[in-house]
Design brief:
By secondary structure, this protein is of the alpha/beta class. Strands 5-4-6-7-8 form a 5-stranded parallel β-sheet, with helices on both faces. The chain has a 5-stranded mixed β-sheet with strand order 10-11-9-14-15. Strand 4, helix 6 and strand 5 form a beta-alpha-beta unit. It holds the Pfam family Response_reg. Keywords: Phosphoprotein. It comes from Ensifer canadensis. It is an enzyme of class 2 (transferase). GO terms for molecular function: diguanylate cyclase activity.
């Protein structure tokens, strides 16, 4: 009954593929047939052919995270199970046990995709906290001071939550919170603080300043895990909503709104690192003529094709978005104008070589690109306007080319 209900809940509610094994022998066969196919195991402590936790030992020996679901339970049992390396333990004979177990599975899978930036100047404390997080399958990036924490955030590393001690060596945790919020604005990461101070007003002030949570030391490991898991769950749901709001409905790449929200922060990070960067606007040549000749449905096919090729060529290193119509924007991450120009030339050539099949007819396209250098703090609109001016020059000069100040200087020199 439990296996059927759990399988139904996980597959229908969460879209998780579930394989049911009624015995240790069946488990061994599944693991042998597909050793790297499973992200998590949910298991009873006692199976017909494994009455003494042999299934748990087998699962953990194969490096598969485990959530235990058992009728035999007390605090001692729980401590023993968690001490052996299980992620969580849920009792069968309590109300809403199926829902509680599904929640435990959801948390475990979320933790497996979560990265925490841990800032603590006290090495023993940092090592202990990192160990607790890693036991929950959470990836940890450890730093000893706020300066290093901000460098990690500026580097663009994928961080989901910041956990900081309030007493850092170079800045208070509250000051770190303020700096994160200043740099990231409305999309600031959740920041959780810890402190062993006896002054409880410190936690209240941190929360009033916009902190996500405050944990008083010493704490129970289960309490710490629960608060981190709760924050991670909310952050993942928020990230999903942000991705939906940031996506262009047709091409499924970032939209103009996301480009204007995220671009200024990325530029600030590059300039703070002492790097120049560049911004490009790419426009499909003669797109109106294509729409008039073949219809808007074919025009949509072309837009999707260009977006897909750009996504492959640009990757995650740089910010790519559809700005509207047949225009796409690229904000380069730390490329000077020479590297950006070479990159844009490659994009132009690759797109001209590609072929689009629509209604059994093969089409080809070309693009024009305007490229502007970013060397000093200005409004983001100014950077985009400069790239737009170079795009206009590229169109005026005959299309299917990249124009930047570099190209203009080369033309003058010749």
């Amino acid at each position: 009954m439990f296996a059927t209900a759990l399988k139904y809940g996980l597959e229908t509610v969460h879209g998780i593929r579930v394989t049911h094994c009624a015995s240790l022998e069946a488990l061994r066969q599944e693991m042998t047939a597909a050793p790297d196919s499973f992200s998590l195991a949910v298991l009873d402590l006692n199976l017909p052919d494994a009455p003494n936790c042999e299934a748990l030992d087998f699962i953990l020996a194969n490096n598969v995270p485990a959530v235990v679901f058992t009728a035999a339970f007390n605090d001692n049992t729980r401590d023993q199970i968690l001490g052996r390396g299980a992620l969580d333990c849920v009792i069968k004979n309590q109300p809403e046990s199926i829902n509680l177990l599904i929640g435990a599975v959801d948390r475990a899978l979320t933790n497996g995709k979560t990265t925490v930036l841990l800032a603590d100047s006290d090495t023993p404390s940092r090592v202990e906290l990192a160990g607790i997080l890693r036991r929950q399958r959470i990836s940890v990036c450890e730093v000893a001071c706020s300066a290093d924490a901000l460098l990690v955030l500026d580097s663009g590393e994928a961080i989901d939550i910041v956990v900081t001690d309030l007493d850092l060596s170079d800045m208070t945790g509250a000051a770190l919170l303020a700096e994160v919020r200043r740099r990231q604005g409305d999309e600031a990461l959740p920041v959780i603080a810890l402190s062993d101070s006896g002054d409880r007003r410190i936690g209240a002030r941190f929360l009033e300043a916009g902190g996500t949570d405050f944990i008083q030391k010493p704490f129970l490991e289960a309490e710490f895990n629960g608060r981190i898991a709760y924050a991670a769950g909310i952050q993942k749901r928020l990230q999903t909503l942000q991705r939906q709001a940031a996506s262009d409905y047709l091409t499924d790449i970032y939209n103009r709104r996301h480009f204007f929200l995220t671009g200024p922060r990325l530029v600030e990070q590059c300039l703070r690192r002492g790097e120049t960067t560049a911004i490009a606007i790419l426009d499909i040549d003669h797109f109106k003529r294509l729409n008039d000749t073949y219809g808007h449905e074919i025009g949509d096919v072309v837009l999707k094709h260009v977006a897909k090729r750009l996504t492959t060529l640009v990757g995650d290193e740089h910010l790519l978005a559809r700005l509207g119509g047949e225009e796409f924007g690229i904000l380069f991450n730390g490329f000077d104008v020479q590297r950006a120009f070479t990159f844009c030339e490659k994009l132009r050539i690759e797109l001209a070589r590609s072929r689009i099949v629509a209604d059994d007819e093969e089409l080809s396209i070309t693009v024009s690109i305007g490229l502007a250098t970013i060397e000093a703090p200005e409004s983001f609109e100014n950077y985009l306007h400069a790239a737009d001016q170079f795009l206009y020059m590229a169109k005026h000069a005959g299309r299917n080319r990249v124009i930047s100040e570099l190209a203009l200087l080369d033309a003058l020199a010749s």
